[in-house]
Amino acid sequence: MSNEIATRDEQQAVAPTQQPANTLPAPAPTEGTTALAAWAQEADLAYQMAQKLANTSFVPATLRGKPGDITAAILAGSELGLKPMATLKSIDVIQGTPALRAHAMRAVVQQQGHEIELVESTPQRCVLRGRRKDSDNWQTVQWDIQRAALMKLTEKAEWKKQPQTMLVARATGELCRLIASDALHGMPYVAEELGGITHAEVVPAKAPLSVAALATPQPAPAAETGYSVQVGNGEWDADAADDSTDWEPDPAQQ
Fold first, then answer.
1. Do residues 167 and 148 touch, judged by C-beta distance below 8 A?
2. If 77 and its partner were Cys, which of 82, 134, 219, 243 is the partner (CB 3.0–4.6 Å)?
3. Dihedral angle of Cα 143, 147, 148, 150, to the nearest 10 degrees
């Protein structure tokens, strides 16, 4: 009896394991799934970073306190070749749409080896030209104040205050789409095109003054810079607007 039991145990030990009839082997990982897994890991790290940065002054006001949106911006910037902190100063969210600032769009295109040259820039006209890497053909784009007026752009506050900067921004967006749309990865418009503004921080609207606040003497106002423009529920920060000029303004405008 013991020999029979030992023989049966040996047969069971060497018998191949039976797979259930309805079980399929796991598919081999493909290049696409491997890339997706790597992207998911990158997104997780970006979110951890965004949580730490969300309430700092380094984050634009439109993204502050929104780690999910910051994560999306960091990932989008990574696809464009921008590092996280550079991304936060290069991408604006205009009416729910992410857009590159004009200077950042030029940087992305130039980083790919394409050329952009400022031919002329005045408050009346901007001429930009550019060409793809290894190409001999130049594309020229011109934006003048008459063209802007036909589109009723000159009625906007920032066009009245900084027409030279706004013309450069418009020409930038049009030229970059012509010579290097493949470098923009779904962000073909500059923030100035979507919002009609120069790049600046949005300052949250102040709460209504109370009776006690009205009775308290107020300090003397700071010198007027000429860049504070009321927009919706906030106003454009003067210091940020002063720093937003892409090229030196025409001395005649000083």
1. yes
2. 82
3. -170
What percent of the chain has a predicted confidence (pLDDT) above 90? 44
Dihedral, CA atoms, 178, 180, 184, 186, nearest 10 degrees? 50
pLDDT band at 66; cut points 50, 70, 90: very high
- Cα Rg of the chain (Å, integer): 29
How would residue 178 be classed by pLDDT, with cut points 50, 70 and 90? very high
Q: Which residues of 196-231 are buried (b: 16+ CB within 10 A; e: fewer)?
A: bbbbbbbbeeeeeeeeeeeeeeeeeeeeeeebebeb
- What value does the mean pLDDT take over residues 105-130? 96
Pairing of strands 125-131, 202-204: unpaired
Beta bridge partners of 93: 98
Give the distance, in angstroms, between the CA of residue 175 and the centroid of all CA atoms in the same chain.
18
Dist. CA 109–CA 131, nearest whole Å: 10
DSSP string, 153-199: GGGSHHHHH-HHHHHHHHHHHHHHHHHHGGGSTT--SBHHHHHSS-S
Q: Which candidate, 63, 55, 51, places its Cα nearest to that of 88?
A: 63
Q: How many residues does the chain have?
A: 254
User: 88, 73 in Cβ contact below 8 A?
Assistant: yes
CA 115 to chain centroid, in Å, comes to 21
The gap between the terminal CA atoms of the chain, to the nearest Å, is: 110
d(CA 79, CA 184): 9
